[in-house]
Amino acid sequence: MGRREAGKLERKRRIIEAARELIRETGNAGLSMRALAERAGVSLATPYNLFGSKQAIVLAVLEDIREYDAKFASLRTADPIDRIFAAGELAMRFYKNDPEFYKTLWAAVSDASGGLRALILSPQRYAFWQRLVGAAAEAGAIDKDIDVVLLVRQLDRILCGVMLDWSIGDVTSRQLQPTVFLGYALMLKAVATPAWQPGLEKRIAESQAKLLGARAKA
After folding, report:
1. Given 1, 26, 38, 50, which residue has the most CB atoms within 10 angstroms?
2. Burial of 85 (0-12, 13-18, 19+ CB in 10 A)
3. C-alpha distances out from residue 126 to 2, 98, 148, Å
4. From first to last of its 218 residues, what are the pLDDT tens digits of the chain?
5. Quick one: DSSP state of residue 37?
6. C-alpha count within 13 angstroms, C-beta hemisphere, residue 19
7. CB–CB of 109/209 below 8 Å?
8. Distance, CA of 148 to CA of 56 (rounded, Å)
């Protein structure tokens, strides 16, 4: 790599890191390009020259932090229902490890007028979950009359509702995963074939116990 290309990559890295820091600190995923340039130590024109737009910078931040796919690929869980919950557990780990950043992003999801909603709730994201739920259906875990695309949308509505509550403080980080998992387990049990229902009943009981424990300590 030449010196010019190396310099360009370094400036991109600084801009992405500055964007992440500003989103955390300000609670605003919209970003001020002037503040971003100052934080990254570049000219005001540089972020536009390197990325093209503010939305492209936010997308680059999301891609830069997304070790998710690699980590999920390393999971050894073969059970298709367990893989749905394993994917959720891994996502929750990211959210709880950087709460201010992710709370800001999920708050932006509720703003239908902004372009961030489409970046976060992307077609690639839906495709990932459709593959997971589709694998469970192919394994016979889900009733054959249930449409996988519609089921994924319903599961995602559970997640988005809980994430919005978390972003405004109505759900604590301690309550986050069991709240999502209780919703998932209740929904999946309603459409699961008989052989798969005991495992989901166990997840319902575990999630309820964690939420009741968290409520008792509140």
Report:
1. 50
2. buried
3. 38, 23, 11
4. 688 888 888 999 999 999 999 988 888 877 889 999 999 999 999 999 999 888 888 888 887 666 777 777 777 777 999 999 999 998 898 899 889 888 988 888 777 666 677 777 788 888 999 999 999 999 999 999 999 999 999 999 999 999 999 999 999 999 999 999 999 999 999 999 999 999 999 999 999 999 998 777 76
5. H
6. 26
7. no
8. 31
Q: State phi, psi for 11 to the nearest 5 degrees.
A: -65, -40
DSSP state of 192: B
116 is written with which tokens? 């961030």
Residue ranges of domains in the chain = 3-64, 66-217
Beta partners for residue 192, in sequence order: 142
